[in-house]
Design a protein that fits this description.
Blueprint: E1 3-7, H1 15-19, E2 31-33, E3 39-45, E4 48-57, E5 60-66, H2 70-75, H3 77-81, H4 95-103, H5 115-124, H6 130-144, E6 146-147, E7 156-157, H7 161-165, H8 169-174, H9 179-190, H10 192-196, H11 203-211, H12 218-228, H13 242-251, H14 258-264, H15 272-281
Helix pairs in contact: 4-15, 5-9, 5-12, 11-12, 13-14
Length: 302
């Protein structure tokens, strides 16, 4: 163990719900949950790879870290846990949202401060099933990542930009990643340092920086910045299900599109991502899905 830090939240806090958005499927090699409820994350920080273990400790949250990136991870622990988030800036405008807000007082929007770490798996999730994307992330980290520092076995740190760039085409193919998504990742890692600067930008500037890369659109930028920047207004557009789920929850009607969703969320300007999270937590958003599901494709057979 290289270091330890304790952070004490000022009010109710839901560790599992807040950190859970960073997990890319049940077999994510960079994210693990112990039987005792402790969370493990393996990250590539500006100082190198690092592993952090995060668990409740009385009224606070204790973190232990290993590796060259340990000090960076501990320095950024409060932001990762949502200390920079300001839930008091949110005002519910619908009864359903008010009730979800009341029932989830510990919800915080986390901020990793690491752009590429969220960008690459978001690119892998473009227009495929979650299972396909999670499998690709898992295989790529297992084959091309490096062992995570610390005592947790079988965890992996994602490749550095150079290692991503050196992955041969047949390895992308084996992981089920088509040429369009792999090419987008390769374009991104070539300008990784410039993309990481987006972690300190406001939403508009950060989104614009990411979307300069061909293949990164509003959906991918929002999914990335929700995690890297903890931006409360980074609402996801271009999603297959979110507009219909938000529309059904707030109006009871089916078939809501992006434009209608944004109109419904207009009263939450500046807080639209938080509003959408609360709507999904309400339980009302779990409408029957009538849209066709993406079929799982096996690129290895092509």
């Amino acid at each position: 163990m290289v270091g330890r830090r304790v952070w004490v939240p000022s009010c109710a806090y839901d560790l599992a719900r807040n950190l859970g958005v960073l997990r890319r499927g049940p077999g994510d090699p960079a994210f693990r949950v112990d039987a005792d409820g402790a969370f493990w994350r393996a990250s590539r920080t500006p100082h190198g790879p690092g592993t952090v273990r995060i668990a409740r400790d009385g009224k606070g949250v204790e973190a232990q870290a290993w590796g060259p990136g340990a000090e960076w991870l501990l320095d950024h622990l409060p932001g990762l846990l949502g200390a920079d988030d300001d839930p008091s800036a949110f005002t519910p405008r619908h009864r359903l949202v008010h009730e979800a807000h009341r029932r989830n007082p510990g919800l915080r929007l986390i901020r990793t401060g690491l752009v590429l770490e969220s960008l690459i798996p978001s690119i892998l999730e473009q227009k495929v099933t979650s299972d396909e994307a999670y499998r690709a992330w898992r295989l790529l980290l297992q084959r091309h990542g490096e062992p995570a520092p610390g005592p947790m076995e079988r965890m992996r740190v994602m490749p550095d930009p150079r290692a991503w760039a050196l992955i041969p085409s047949w390895e992308w193919h084996r992981a089920g990643v088509d040429g369009k998504r792999s090419a987008t990742i390769l374009r991104a890692v070539r300008v990784a340092r410039r993309l990481e600067e987006a972690a300190s930008m406001d939403l508009d500037a950060a989104s614009q920086r990411l979307r300069l890369i061909p293949g990164i659109g509003p959906w991918t930028a929002a999914e990335t910045l929700q995690r890297s920047n903890g931006t409360p207004d980074a609402i996801t557009v271009g999603d297959l299900h979110l507009p219909r789920m938000v529309g059904y929850a707030l109006t009871g009607e089916r078939g809501t599109d992006d434009a209608a969703m944004l109109e419904l969320l207009a009263p939450y300007a500046g807080q639209r991502h938080r509003a959408a999270r609360l709507i999904l937590l309400s339980g009302r958003a779990a409408m029957p899905r009538r849209a066709p599901r993406f079929a799982v494709r096996d690129f290895r057979a092509m």
